[in-house]
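haha ok so turns out i had the wrong file open the whole time. this is the CORRECT one, sorry everyone. sequence first:
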Amino acid sequence: MKIKTNRIESIDILRGLVMVIMALDHVRDFFHYGAFFNDPTNLETTTPFLFFTRFITHYCAPVFVFLAGTSAFLYGTKKTKHELSKFLLTRGLWLIVLELVVNNLLWKFDLTYSRIILQVIWAIGFSMVSLAFLIYLPKKIILTIGLLIVFGHNALDGIVKNGTRFFDIIWYLLHQPNIVPVNNHIDIGIFYPVLPWIGVMILGYCFGQLYTKNFHIPLRKKWLIGLGTGSILLFFILRGINIYGDLVPWSVQDTTTKTILSFFKVSKYPPSLAYILITLGPALLFLYGIETVKNKLTNFLLVFGRVPLFYYFAHILVIHVLAIIGILLFGGNWLDMILTKDAFSSGNLLNYGYSLFIVYLVWVSVILMLYFPCKKYMIYKATNKDKWWLSYL
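then structure:
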């Protein structure tokens, strides 16, 4: 079925690609042996293949947030500033609600909400709320703010809070991951401090200028290759100097392989400058290369890229249910997959998990399972543009 749309395919293809890759990380979370207790980037316990499995998924969150800003800019080209601001504010608040209520339930199946985790949907929502007010500023000022945040926020790494006072919590929300107790039964895990993500979304918003209707395509491609190559080069320069740009400097290890892994072990929580450069740089080069490509693979990726929120929640639900089915089939207590805040301290999941081969097998299966539901929903959205509420789903 041929669908007429004004959407920019290269952006949707890139979004679809990172959505597919994102599922690999989440399958690893639920299926890999020791995933509930071990960091896949821990140089003492990881393997190059496991490290790569985690590293490749680093591209998902920054590209997703960046392109959310780009989509906001392109949406605004057809709206007034007030209409765009209202949309960003309401959609951002809606995403925060979805994070708190729906996403936490799907991830943990914990009806008591004993640990409320603030992840990427929260970060996107809060960044949209922030952008709703920033768009009234001149574009050069908006760009300057975005650059200052992305390039300067690592200067704040030395500020460390440990309490639960009001300003401590504000700092956790902005820049320092932490777990904050609400009462004896509930705590909040702030895993995506929002300040750097706001900067990434601002830059994505400014980047949208390159995709306006009358922008010269050869000039856009020059910008893409220039920004992409420049970002990667700057990453290697900053990591080589090893003074600024990441919370944890790299170091020489007892083997060359471990030293290379240390070099590429960049901080995601919050996303460091080095992390942002090495993820967005290749993403921009991908946009350069994919501009005029059209084949079965790009058509496949388009499906996921055009229904990202639907896909996100669907893939978490499917992965979690498959993990429960796996326990039922191969032995274990399925109740261990009800991930309350006490589930990890109980030790019941200590010996749970499967090999990386199984992780990749389940990942491919999840993607194939979700393709047709996502395609059906994509067609529904494209043929029902008069339904305003679809823009929030």
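The CA atoms of residues 91 and 391 lie 9 Å apart.
again sry for the mixup
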